Amino acid sequence: MWDPSFYYAQMRTPLIEGNLDMSEDIYPRDVAMPRNKTGLIGSVWPLGSGLFWTPFFLVAHTAKWLTDSNHADGTSPIYIALVSIGSALYGFAGLLFIFKLCRQFTSSHLALLITIACFGASALLYYSLRQPIMAHTTSFLCSSALLLTYIYLRKKVIPMRLSGLLLGVLLALNILTRWSGALTAIFPAAFFVTVLWQQMAVRDWKAIRITLLQIAIAAICCVTVFSPQLAFWYKVYGRWFVSPQGVDSFVAGWLPINLPNVLISTNRGLIFWMPLAVFGLIGLCRLSDRPLRALLLAYFAIACMLIGYRVDWYSGAGFGARYFIELLPVIAIGLCALFCDWDLHVVGRWALRFLVFALVAHQLLLMYVYEHAPSNGWIDYLAFGTGQPLGVRFQLDSALKLIWQPTLWFQLRPYVGMDRQSLPVALMATPSNLRTLPQIPLIGTLCAPFLAIGAAWMLYKLRSRGATITAAFVIIYCLAWFVFLLSISTHAA
């Protein structure tokens, strides 16, 4: 609960408590957190996911306040349920962008298969449905939106006059949701440098001035959208800018010594835990658009190197190759290039469907092993949490056990309260006592259809000018959070 508690506390504490003293919101509470000169505990986690979740949190707060005001404290099941639904919906919105992105390169059939693969054959599945109170769904949405916007600008689907607004807002959102999102600056930089190079080649000074103006707009929009994080740092640390993560997070020396582990380790290396990314990387090398191929390969390589510099390249005790969720839009383009020929005939289409099915089944297997590892001993959980090799055999052995004993799929997850078990598992465990059904997934199941319909309606209504309206709303929304954070107390009353 360490990471999720910080993400959630950075939203709940200022909204409910009216201060920034998060010490009572962090789990586990028996871990001593150092306090800085303001007397507050700090946070190495960005603020962005909480900003995304706030509308769902406020809906839950309103409902709770109207029905049981004495317990409208931000911790009831309805809060967790609606925030979780919101996080999952952001992930599904990102999948919509993935589909639109793939449609720029291939048929609707292949685009749909790749979209399904990006969801079900990656750790995005787990962080959408099992642990949504993390930053991965929102960061996935932002990275997908930024790459799609870059492609649209490149193809002149979006006019140049909107480039500064959209790229600036989306870059800031990428950084706000995960610090590694700063790497996505490569796309705005590539776009503006390419445009300026072409304009300077023909000495079109008027167009150059327009491009420089768009760069300035992008910078202003980026700082404005990022401003809530600056206000948070100022109130918590007493200064406007803080290095998000200390040098202890990275290896000593100049080389990304953990890069081989990132790719081939049996403990969350790509080959064993997310083979979808390997197919995508192969496809990127086959992409016919040479400038785009070079850009995407450079971005993928830099991201891999950054992970290779991390001490916790294996992502701590988190599930799967989660550091690659933000790279799924790039992987999707690679998959389009790799499988476009397969999509041209019936045999190839069926082969693709089988491959997607196999990759999704593989990810479900890993999820089961991860969730039940503390109790069934199928893997060494201590070795898992410290990045040690897990061996090649455990995946095959686990698959055989689940095939011969399919009822294992309906076992209760160990060390997870009944209020957070899935509905099918809870029904299998206590079929005669409906009162024991877990509240959080039950509320989510009842509310999700209505929220999904509402989100679809909003997307339909905003489809013509949606990008501009949404970007303007984000700017106003972030400015409101900036003012709010500067105005509240730093300590509990």
Number of helices: 20
N-to-C order of helices and strands = HHHHHHHHHHHHHHHHHHHH
- Could you name the ranges where pLDDT drops below 50 across 5 or more consecutive residues? none
User: Considering DSSP H and I runs of 4 or more, what fraction of the residues is helical?
Assistant: 55-70%
Number of strands: 0
Secondary-structure-based class equals: mainly alpha
Could you tell me the mean pLDDT?
A: 89
What is the percentage of strand-forming residues?
Answer: under 5%
Looking at the structure, what is the overall shape? globular
Q: Distance between the terminal alpha carbons, to the nearest Å? A: 27 Å
Radius of gyration using CA atoms only: 23 Å
